[in-house]
Amino acid sequence: MTDHPDISEPAEPSTAYLDITGRAVRRQVKKVQEAEPTPSSAEAYPGQRDLWRAVDREVDAYTEELTALADDLHAHPELAFAEHRSMAVLADAVERHGYPTQRGVHGVETAFAAEWSAPDFDPDAHPTVMVMAEYDALPGIGHGCGHNVIAAAGLGAFWAAASASAAAGLRGRIVLLGTPAEEGHTGKEYLIRGGCLQGVDAAVMMHGFAYDSPAHTWVDRRFLRVRYTGVAAHASAQPFMGRNALDAVSLAYQGLGLLRQQMPPSDRLHAIITSGGDSPNVIPNCAEMELYVRSSQTATLIDLSERVANVLDGAALMSGCGVEVDWDVHPMSLPVRNNSALVDRFSETQRARGRVPLPAGTLPESLSASTDFGNVSHLVPGLHPMVKMAASDVALHTEDFAAAAGSPAAHRAVVDSAAGLGQVVCDLLADGDLLAVARADFERAGGVQAVADLER
């Protein structure tokens, strides 16, 4: 009998692409490190320098508490819309610092909010800046996206910016918003539709990563469910009397695979078959699949969506089955608009803390995912930097990244990000020119674009 190779285990994926990418990034990091330093805003504006020092002092005072919060969330991961304990832990911490919280805000049970405002705050004359904090985890691997770090950094940024702004007599308002259900959902879009951005002039948050990438590429995402219905029949005695729903979903799956050949390189399709029958002896009369559609631009996402719809309909016609497509089961998410004014300012804060922020375009656009903060950044100027907290070969949504989210590197990311975000928030309140430039950049990028206007 001929010997067969052992195929009981999956083949080990090649690391060649990541190795090449890593070498290119390391060369870019070295180039950035060796470049002549440019004057930072803290050096150019004495007021900013004093504010930055005040924020640093506040964050230093909160460091132990912030890292303990990150570790607590890491040890108790909760899934989207079920983050009851996480929300309570964070809201309780905010209240201990003297800021009353509202829980279950904007129609989302596990969201919370707190705010600081100057005694003479005038919403028509003074800016409002929002700090967002995520805290949901992933099924099976816990905080494999590091939202525990995001939450702790957000609280630290809020506390530090509020304290420094009050001491400096700044006029404005700072809102902390706990934002659940980013993973596999679009929690921020539900909060938006509940009014969370009313009166907000800019929004900021951070995200952990394997690199310091303040202007990272993010892509659109749509989520859909597909259900094919056929006619059941005995698979041996009368197969001709059946209409096989599993055939339909299989044709759709193959059609999507063929479509990938003609997609732009930044587009992505991911599908799973969630049901396909109960017995091999019965032709299935029902089969279902779930699908993500992603693209780097909203216009190309809409184009790809139409092509996907044609594939799904074609599979129904070929198999003689009916098809129902439920688009946007969760609201779609848009790509993050990286506001250059805010990105530049945050990058300066991180250089001051010894980090090396990579210029836009350094990392391949293929190293991208989706986030509901994209929806925020299409309604107000937004800042969503990626901050290094893991080795360069560690990917998001893995067990290795979950381990990194509880490491000393994650603690450093919490502290550095809390300081950086807090400093940007203070600058937006103190430096009218910064806010004006951020608004101008937002308008050049297309201005306000609401997701509700784009859905099918």
TrEMBL record:
The segment annotated Disordered runs over 1-20, 28-47
Keyword Hydrolase set for record: yes
Citing just one GO molecular function, the answer is: hydrolase activity
Q: Boundaries of each Peptidase M20 dimerisation domain copy?
A: 225-313
Quote any Pfam family the record assigns: Peptidase_M20
Q: Does the keyword Hydrolase apply?
A: yes
Checking SUPFAM superfamilies in the record gives:
Bacterial exopeptidase dimerisation domain, Zn-dependent exopeptidases
**Gene3D superfamilies for the chain:** 3.30.70.360, Zn peptidases (3.40.630.10)
Keywords noted in UniProt: Hydrolase
What the record says about family reads:
Belongs to the peptidase M20A family.
Protein name (database record): Peptidase M20 domain-containing protein 2
Q: What is the lineage of its organism?
A: Bacteria, Bacillati, Actinomycetota, Actinomycetes, Mycobacteriales
